[in-house]
C-alpha cells in the first residue's frame, strides 16, 4: 500500500518494505528523517538513530508529536502513510523546478497506469455505501456472503470476468449439437428383463454421467475462484481497508 510513495521518494526497496518488521521499520524512520523530512537538526537525531535502544519507541513517539502526526504510535500503518505523505510534499517543495514542467497528459497517463495496477487503492471497505453495494451485487449474482466485503467484491469480479464478459456470454450462447450415441456400446451392468426398460436405463445413466461432468467443472471453477482470492498478495484482509 506504500509502494507508490516509496517509489516517488526513491526508497531502495519499495516493493518489499514491511512496516511490521521492527528493525526494518526503525531503519526506515531514520532514513525518512535523514533524507526527506529533516525536521530535526543533525545533532538532534541521535535518539532516533539509536534503533537498538529500549527507549527508541519513546523517541519515536516524541518525533511524531514534533512533526504533528495525528496518529498514535500503535497505528503504525496510518503513521507510515502520513509520514510518507509529509515526505512527498517536502520533496516536491525542495524540487519544484523539477516537476513544474510535467505535462498534464503525462501525469494523466501515469495516474491511469497506477489506477489500473491498483484498482482498489482508494477503496474504503468500511464505507456503508460500499457495503450495501457489495451486498446487493452478491445477492443479485447469488454469491455466498462473507464477513469481509472485500473478499465478496473480489469474488464478484471473478464471476463477472469469467461469466458476464461479452466473450463469455457469446460463448455460452452458442448452440451445442449433440452427437449420436450407440447405446449398444454402453454396458448397463444389469438386466431388467425388458429390452425397452434396459434402453431407458442406459439413457438415464448417460445423462447422469453428463450431469456429474458439469458438476465437476463447476467445482473446479469454484476452486480456482477461491484460490485467486486467497492467493492475492496485495490484500491483507486483517486491515479492514486497502490504501487510504
User: How many β-strands, per DSSP?
Assistant: 0
How much is the average pLDDT?
76
User: Which consecutive residue ranges, at least 5 long each, have pLDDT under 50?
Assistant: none
The coarse overall form would be: elongated
What string, H for helix and E for strand, traces the elements in order?
HHHHHHHHHHH
Task: Quickly give the structural class.
Answer: mainly alpha
Alpha carbon gap, first and last residue: 8 Å
Rg to the nearest angstrom?
A: 29 Å
Largest sheet: none
Strand content: under 5%
Helix content: 55-70%
The number of domains is 3
- SS field, number of helical segments: 11
Protein name: RNA transcription, translation and transport factor protein
Pfam families: RLL
Family: Belongs to the RTRAF family.
InterPro entries: RTRAF
Q: How is this structure best described in words?
A:
The chain has 244 residues and is mostly helical. The chain folds into 3 domains: 1-105, no CATH class; 130-173, no CATH class; 184-231. 61% of the residues lie in helices and 0% in strands. The protein is built from 11 helices and no strands. It has helices spanning 3-8, 22-37, 46-49, 56-66, 76-94, 96-99, 104-117, 128-141, 149-164, 166-173, 195-230. Helix 9 packs across helix 10. The longest helix has 36 residues, at 195-230. The radius of gyration is 29 Å and the shape is elongated. The termini are close together. The mean pLDDT is 76.
Amino acid at each position: 500500500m506504500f509502494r507508490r510513495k516509496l517509489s516517488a521518494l526513491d526508497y531502495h526497496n519499495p516493493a518489499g518494505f514491511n512496516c511490521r518488521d521492527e528493525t526494518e521499520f526503525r531503519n526506515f524512520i531514520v532514513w525518512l528523517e535523514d533524507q526527506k523530512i529533516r525536521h530535526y537538526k543533525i545533532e538532534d537525531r541521535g535518539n532516533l538513530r539509536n534503533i537498538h535502544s529500549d527507549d527508541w519507541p519513546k523517541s519515536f513517539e516524541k518525533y511524531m508529536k514534533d512533526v504533528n502526526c495525528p496518529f498514535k504510535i500503535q497505528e503504525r500503518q496510518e503513521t507510515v502513510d502520513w509520514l510518507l505523505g509529509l515526505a512527498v510534499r517536502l520533496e516536491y517543495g525542495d524540487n519544484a523546478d523539477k516537476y513544474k514542467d510535467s505535462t498534464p497528459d503525462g501525469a494523466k497517463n501515469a495516474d491511469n497506469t497506477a489506477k489500473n495496477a491498483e484498482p482498489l487503492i482508494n477503496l474504503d471497505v468500511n464505507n456503508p455505501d460500499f457495503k450495501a453495494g457489495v451486498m446487493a451485487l452478491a445477492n443479485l449474482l447469488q454469491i455466498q456472503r462473507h464477513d469481509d466485503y472485500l473478499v465478496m467484491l473480489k469474488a464478484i469480479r471473478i464471476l463477472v470476468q469469467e461469466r458476464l464478459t461479452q466473450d463469455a456470454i457469446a460463448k455460452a450462447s452458442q448452440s451445442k449439437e449433440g452427437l449420436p450415441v450407440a447405446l449398444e456400446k454402453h454396458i448397463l451392468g444389469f438386466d431388467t428383463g425388458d429390452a425397452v426398460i434396459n434402453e431407458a436405463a442406459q439413457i438415464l445413466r448417460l445423462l447422469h454421467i453428463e450431469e456429474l461432468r458439469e458438476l465437476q467443472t463447476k467445482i473446479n471453477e469454484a476452486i480456482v475462484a477461491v484460490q485467486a482470492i486467497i492467493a492475492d498478495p496485495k490484500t491483507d484482509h486483517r486491515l479492514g481497508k486497502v490504501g487510504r
